[in-house]
Amino acid sequence: MLITEFRIILPVTVEEYQVAQLYATAQMSKQNTGGGEGVEILANQPFEKPMSEAFLGKYNTGQYTKKIYHLGSRVPGFVRLLFSDSSLSMHEEAWNAYPYCKTVLTNPYMKDNMIIDISTLHVADRGESENVHLLSGDELKKRNIVYINIADPVSRADYKEADDPEKYKSAKTGRGPLLASQPWQKTCQPYMCCYKLVREKFKWFGLQTRVENLIMTQEERLFRNFHRQLFCC
After folding, report:
1. pLDDT score of 11 more than 50
2. Where is the Phosphatidylinositol transfer protein N-terminal domain (predicted)?
């Protein structure tokens, strides 16, 4: 199992992020639905857990969603060779107990041999907290930390001028532009960090390492693009 903690510093407050996240999520879902591929929503309802089952011991109420992501042509060719079209889907269960969120992704074909578990905590700091997810000693040894700078260049395929922090300036707050060449993450006001802990397992002899690395690379790409859009929305 791979364990990677992505830390994404943003020039917004934790409260502002909550509102912007809802808008950016809706926009991304809208952009990726259609043509037989996209997002299918199966459940969207409040949840409440007993405190004994609360996330991190204190987050026990929020919104639960269940979705199916139809991947289709969005996966690499070598993966499409292994799966039928009906198997190229991901089932997602998510618990939004903001500022904590948990998302679990599975594939019905792979069952317990494939799981992507994402725990997210939004904190009013600059990414310096050592263990916000309360990992065990063994997990800390396995954890890889990756800082994502939303101002860094993205691929030509992912680039959208409207979502470029180096060109965006908020008419409402005056924040931006953010320059990748400048240490804005250390100086911006306000500030917060999105700590995304990804636990990933893919058990398939001969393909495990390749696919696990591919999935983690795609998660980093998704987080970068999403937060570029969130800041510029």
Report:
1. yes
2. 1-232
In 107-142, beta strands by DSSP E: 114-123
Amino acid at 4: T
User: Would you give the DSSP letter of residue 157?
Assistant: T
Q: 1: closest CA among 178, 167, 147, 138?
A: 138
Distances, alpha carbon 185 to alpha carbons 24, 155, 171, in Å: 21, 22, 21
Q: What is the pLDDT of residues 48-86, one digit of tens each?
A: 999 999 999 999 999 999 998 877 655 555 454 455 555
**Which sequence spans correspond to the domains of the chain?**
2-232
Maximum pairwise Cα distance, the chain: 53
Give this prediction's pTM: 0.91
CATH number of this structure's domain 2-232: 3.30.530.20
